[in-house]
Amino acid sequence: MIERVEVSAVGPDVELQSWASELPPQNATLTIVRVFDEDGTQGVGATPSYSTGRFDRAMLESLRLVAPLVIGKDAGLREAIWHGLDDLTLPVLPGARSALDIALWDLVAQRSGLPLYRLLGGARERLPAYASTPMLADAQAYVEFVAEMRAQGFRAVKFHAWCEPERDLEMLRAVHAAHGDAGITFMHDGEQRYDRRSSVLIGRELDAMGFAWLEAPLVDLDLDGYRDLRRQVGVPILPGGNTILEVQQVGQALRMEPWDAVRFDVTIAGGFTAARKLAGLADAWGLRVELQSWGYTLIQAANLHFGLAHEHSGYFELPVPHEPYEYGVENPYRVQPDGYVDAPTAPGLGVVVDWERMRAARLSSFTCTSRNPEPSEEM
After folding, report:
1. CATH at residue 356
2. Of 55, 113, 214, 273, which one's alpha carbon is 20 to 30 angstroms from that of 236?
C-alpha cells in the first residue's frame, strides 16, 4: 500500500533555452513525485513545464489536490488509480497525472527487479537517437553543430530554429549542402509557428532534400490545415503533440488523417497508462509513435523506456547540448558510436538521482501520508 507521497518543484540554475526568435528563454521546471510503500520501496515520476520570467508551480499545486488520492492504494492497481484521479468535473492537468502514474509504474518495477521497459512489455534493447538542437545564431552555426553531433555518434539531427520561414529554409539548405551526403537523417520542428502557405513551401523543400519529417508546422488544433498539408507535400508530417492528448481526442483527430505518426510525451500525456492507450490507437491506424523527450533526464527516461517497450516507436529524442538537462542525476544518457542509446539495466526507470542537488534547487514541496492525508508543506 502507498504510505507516503512527496512532491517537489525543482528549478535548476542552468542555461535557459528558446525554440523561436519571438520566444524568450524559458525557465524549465521539473516537478518530481516520489511514492513510498509500507516497506520503504519508492517509485519516482516527473513532469516538465516551461514558462517565461519565473518558474512554474502549477503542476505542484495540481498534485497537492490529487496526490492524497493514492494514499492507501495498491500500486499494482495502476489502471484503477489512473481513472480514479479524474472526478469528471474539471480535468486534472495531464502532467500531474503523468508524474503520479510514472512513479507507480516505477515502484512496481522496483519491486519486481525489472527495468521498466521490460515490465511494459519489452520490444527491443536499443533505440536510434537523434540530437534535438537548441536555437543557434545563424546557418553556419548549425552546419558546425551538425559536425559536432556526428563526431559524438549521432546519425540523426532534428532542428529547432527561429521559426521564420525564409531564414529557417536558408539554414536547412546550408546544412543539407554540407552534410546531406554523410548518411545523416534530418528532421525539422516548426514549433507550431508557421502558417499554411509557408508550411507547404517548407514541406516541399524538405521532401526534395529527403528529410525524415516536418514536425509541428501548424498549431496542433488546425487539423484541417494538417490534412491539407499532407495532401500537398511528400515529407511525413507530425504534430507538436502537446495539445491533443486524451485518447478520445486523438482518435477523433485521426479520422481526418492529419499526421503520419502519433506524437506525445509520456510525462505530459498522462503517464505510461495513458501512453499504452495512445500507442494502441496508433497501432489500430497503422501509424508509428514518435515520442518527445525534450527535458531533464527524468523526462527522457520515461520516454526511453516506453519507446523500448513499443514495437512501432521510432527515435529517442536526446536534447543537446546535454548539460542543462542532466541536472541532479548521476547516470545521464549518451549516444553510442553507432547512433543508438542502450536500454537501462537497473530496476525501474534506472535513473540515479542526486537528491541533495535536487533539494538545493527546490522551489516548493509538500508531503502527504496515510496518517496525514492533507499535504504538509516542506519548504
Report:
1. 3.30.390.10
2. 273
